[in-house]
Amino acid sequence: MKLTLKEKKQETPDVTSFVFISGSEIGWQAGQYLHYVLHHEPTDDRGSDRWFTISSAPHEGFVMLTTRFAKDNGSSFKKELEGLNVGDTVEFSDLDGDFVLENVKEKYVFIAGGIGITPYRAILKDLENKGNNVDIILLYSNRDSNFVFKDELDNISNPSLKVKYIEGKVDEKHIKDNVSDIKDRIFYISGPEGMVDSIGEELKGLGISEDNIKQDWFPGYD
Ligand SMILES: Cc1cc2nc3c(=O)[nH]c(=O)nc-3n(C[C@H](O)[C@H](O)[C@H](O)COP(=O)(O)OP(=O)(O)OC[C@H]3O[C@@H](n4cnc5c(N)ncnc54)[C@H](O)[C@@H]3O)c2cc1C
Questions:
Q1: What CATH number has the domain spanning 107-218?
Q2: Model-wide pTM > 0.90
Q3: Over the stretch 151-167, which tens digit does the pLDDT of each residue have?
Q4: 131 CA to middle of ligand 1, Å?
Q5: Domain extent listing, the chain
Q6: Average pLDDT of the residues in 86-111
Q7: Ligand 1 atom at minimum distance from 68 CA
Q8: Cα 196 from chain centroid?
Q9: Per-residue pLDDT, 23
Q10: Is residue 82 scored above 80 in pLDDT?
Q11: Burial class (CB in 10 A: 0-12, 13-18, 19+), 92
Q12: Burial 185-206 (b: 16+ CB within 10 A, else e)
């Protein structure tokens, strides 16, 4: 199946969103991802396909892919993606993923590392659209002060949403300082693989049951 590029949005100096229109109904749940194929020559050993979260919510009517471009050692896939022009098409398939919100009655902590913010944008926009004021604490860590989607997150209409921006790595202290009721909440963690694993272990060390931890690993980042 094909998506057509409608717009490119520079979110921060090294992060761009690609807004696509689909000819057919995709019917995704906020937080799910797609498989993309970009044929290009020469292709490096990292290959011509990738998975990306849909950073838009279904009601927005477009599929958005938001990604970071590396200063050094960027892949040939990302160079091809960066070079797409409005009107170009990309192949996609395999809608999948269980990093979705299952129960709006529960209380949550969303932990994002850098570009791991993408599923949360989709989920928070979706909840806002449905008028679900779910109790969520979002701990959003980033390597610098260029927090992707900051303006949008600050304007989400949900009085039960608290967003804490953390410059640098999120750790156990940030969790303890910002979440007083850790045993009553379900934890979602999204970002580079190493960060997601280490926060998961810290949460287990704090006595959070594995059943209350959901993880979304983004491979390919240092
Ligand atoms: C379910 C799922 C959802 C995802 N959602 C997103 C998303 O929403 N946004 C997003 O950006 N990514 C997402 N990813 C990750 C995405 O698929 C890519 O793996 C990631 O963006 C890295 O892309 P890249 O390999 O083209 O590397 P680049 O972005 O070009 O480079 C990343 C960094 O890795 C280093 N590096 C990694 N491997 C090598 C290598 N073999 N040789 C040299 N240097 C290397 C580079 O130095 C560079 O600094 C998701 C992955 C999964 C599985």
A1: 3.40.50.80
A2: yes
A3: 999 999 999 999 999 99
A4: 34
A5: 2-96, 107-218
A6: 96
A7: 11
A8: 13
A9: 87
A10: yes
A11: buried
A12: bbbbbbbbeebbebbbebbeee
| Shortest-distance atom of ligand 1 to CA 74 | 30
Residue 115 Cβ < 6 Å to ligand 1: yes
Nearest CA to ligand 1 atom 39: 220
Which position has the token pair 């949460």?
Answer: 203
Specify the residue with its C-alpha closest to ligand 1, atom 20: 220
Residue of 50, 92, 96 best suited for mutating to test ligand 1, as the one with most atoms within 8 Å of CB: 50
| Statement: residue 222 has pLDDT above 80 | no
CATH class of 2-96: mainly beta
Mutate to test the pocket of ligand 1, among 29, 72, 73 (most ligand atoms within 8 A of CB): 73
CA of 186 to the centre of ligand 1 (A): 27
Closest CA to 190 of 71, 63, 55, 75: 55
Distance, CA of 32 to CA of 94 (rounded, Å): 10
Cα end-to-end span (Å), the chain = 31
219 lines ligand 1 (CB under 6 A): yes
Looking at residue 113, its amino acid is: G
Confidence band (pLDDT; 50, 70, 90) for 220?
confident
Q: Quick check: 86 and 18 in contact, CB under 8 A? A: no
